[in-house]
Write a structure and sequence with these properties.
Blueprint: E1 3-7, H1 14-23, E2 28-31, H2 48-57, E3 61-64, H3 72-84, H4 97-108, H5 113-120, E4 126-130, H6 141-152, E5 156-159
Parallel strand pairs: 1-4, 1-5, 2-3, 2-4
Helix pairs in contact: 3-4
Length: 165
């Protein structure tokens, strides 16, 4: 493995999303969502079946790593913190410290970065961590990327949609 990238779906259109993956040479795509669906017609391309099919067409291997998805209880806690701050999920810029601590205890305490890399296989060079939030810092994928960067000494790039116009 040479590099980790993270990507969310919000803010991307279908063409831009897959172009971003191709531009950086993603060859392994790790979906770390619990529910592999996104509401709304604009993001239908990120629903499980369509996403897997398009990635296969592009020669990108798909992996679902549900053990890296936060529990519903942890997600609800973050939503309550967001609501108290009058911030919607799509407006959130960073995770709360409580969520980050909970996620590290719930999902990363037993996470083995070296086994994760081995599971993807030796052909995995550029690995994408995928969830929905636009900003990596507002999503648990940033915590997984941070761990992989530290333990595997890999660079991390956060892919963002380009503004229209």
């Amino acid at each position: 493995m040479h590099k980790i990238v993270t990507i969310g779906v919000y803010g991307f259109d279908e063409r831009g999303f897959f172009a971003a993956l191709q531009r950086v040479g993603v060859d392994a795509f790790c979906d770390i969502r619990r529910r592999r669906g996104v509401r709304g017609r604009d993001y239908a391309f990120a629903n499980r079946a369509r996403l897997e099919a398009r990635l296969a067409e592009l020669g990108i291997r798909y992996f679902h790593r549900i053990e890296l998805a936060p529990s519903n209880a942890l997600r609800q806690m973050q939503y309550a913190i967001d609501a108290a701050a009058h911030v919607s999920k799509r407006q959130r810029q960073v995770l709360s410290p409580a969520f980050a601590d909970g996620y590290r205890q719930e999902c990363l305490a037993t996470f083995d970065s070296h086994q994760f890399a081995a599971d993807l296989g030796p052909e995995a060079r550029v690995v994408a961590l995928f969830c929905v939030e636009t900003e990596a810092a507002a999503c648990h994928r940033s915590l997984v990327a941070e761990r992989l960067a530290q333990e595997l000494h890999l660079p991390v790039e956060h892919l963002l949609p380009t503004p229209a116009g």
